[in-house]
Design goal:
Rossmann fold; seven-stranded parallel beta sheet; 13 strands; 49% helix; alpha/beta; 349 residues; 11 helices
Length: 349
């Protein structure tokens, strides 16, 4: 049975722009009471008005997720106002573009403090409430780069990989809690202001990498996870393909990603060094979208398209199987059955 969201209490961090702002509207349209958290109170007040207009309730709590005391205060305000927390969406994130050895250490640390520790603090606050009330859904918004590295954004990738691992650990600890769920969302490249907000020490202007997904699709996926909790969900076909490809051919996948980022993540414009919004929120770019124009073709995959992806992965799976068989023969052992290969691909997808 799907969980009802009418009158549910939903906490969303990073709610002042991008995915968080889109999610706040979507949950409000379901009739939820939305607790909005971000560093900029004035931007949150605008989002609260949108939530009221959409038919929901809204509570604004200015919060810096790098400070665990502020995150605990966020949870306490939600509980004092509404009496419970039904869904907690960890979403606040910042990004940094830089060659690894040229990234300022304090900027690198700030990305991990915001993205990873911010989620850790949010999960601790949420799970405390969930255990006391016996139910709840925690949703960690990660990224497709939690399944593959990406050059020039290593701090961001490390944080998102850690978020995915955190979800796995929490699900294992919650294995006997039937009504408490920890879900991980893995979206592809999203049309949000994150790229305008990002710190940048590359000397080049950055952009969203194609194919770009509309933030409303990610918001819809968050709502769906709140209703139908699942361990992990990709948003956009590119994430699934990259995950399978990296599982079967990691070396080739790394080379392809390196070339793709160089060609598709930067614009032919110079950019001065900037800390972006790492340490102070920006007054501008509080909209849902970032103006990166999502591609028309980037929609949910139909059965034929999904079948095409599976067929495209078969040669790689067979090549992997042959390599395993040859290695096993050299060791005087048997080889991996094809069923095991296909099961591996299915689980990784």
């Amino acid at each position: 049975m799907p969980r009802k969201l009418k009158d549910a209490v939903v906490v969303i961090t990073g709610a002042s722009s991008g995915i968080g702002r889109a999610a706040a509207r979507s949950f409000a349209q379901e009739g939820a009471a939305v607790v909005l958290a971000a560093r900029r109170r004035d931007a949150l007040e605008e989002v609260a008005q949108e939530c009221h207009a959409a038919g929901g309730q809204a509570l604004v709590v200015a919060t810096d997720v790098t400070d665990e005391r502020q995150v605990q205060h966020l949870a306490q305000r939600a509980l004092e106002t509404y009496g419970r927390i039904d869904v907690w969406v960890n979403n606040a994130a910042v990004s940094l573009f830089a060659r690894f050895e040229e990234a300022p250490p304090e900027a690198y640390r700030r990305v991990i403090e915001t993205n990873l520790y911010g989620y850790i603090y949010g999960a601790r606050a949420a799970l405390q409430a969930f255990r006391e009330q016996g139910s709840g859904v925690l949703i960690n918004n990660a990224s497709m780069v939690a399944s593959i590295g990406q050059p020039f954004t290593s701090a961001y990738v490390i944080s998102k990989t850690g978020i995915r691992a955190l979800g796995e650990c929490l699900r294992e600890e919650l294995v006997d809690e039937k009504h408490i769920h920890a879900c991980t969302l893995l979206p592809g490249s999203i049309d949000t202001p994150m790229f305008q907000h990002a710190a940048n020490y590359t000397g080049r202007s950055v952009k969203a990498m194609d194919p770009v997904i509309a933030p409303e699709r990610v918001a819809a996926a968050l709502v769906n996870l709140a209703k139908h909790p699942r361990r992990e969900t990709f948003v956009g076909g590119s994430g699934r393909v990259v995950s399978i490809q990296h599982a079967l051919m990691p070396g080739m996948s790394e080379r392809l990603m390196a070339r793709q980022v160089q060609r598709n993540h930067f614009r032919d414009e110079a950019a001065p060094p900037s800390a972006g919004n790492l340490f102070q929120p920006m007054a501008q770019w509080t909209s849902v979208d970032g103006g990166w124009k999502p591609a028309r073709s980037n929609r949910n995959l139909g059965p034929l398209a999904l079948a095409g992806l599976v067929l495209a992965a078969v040669p790689a799976a067979l090549a992997w199987r042959r390599a395993q068989r040859q290695a096993a023969r050299r060791r005087g052992l048997g080889f991996t059955p094809l069923a095991q290969v296909t099961d591996y691909v299915r689980r990784r997808a």
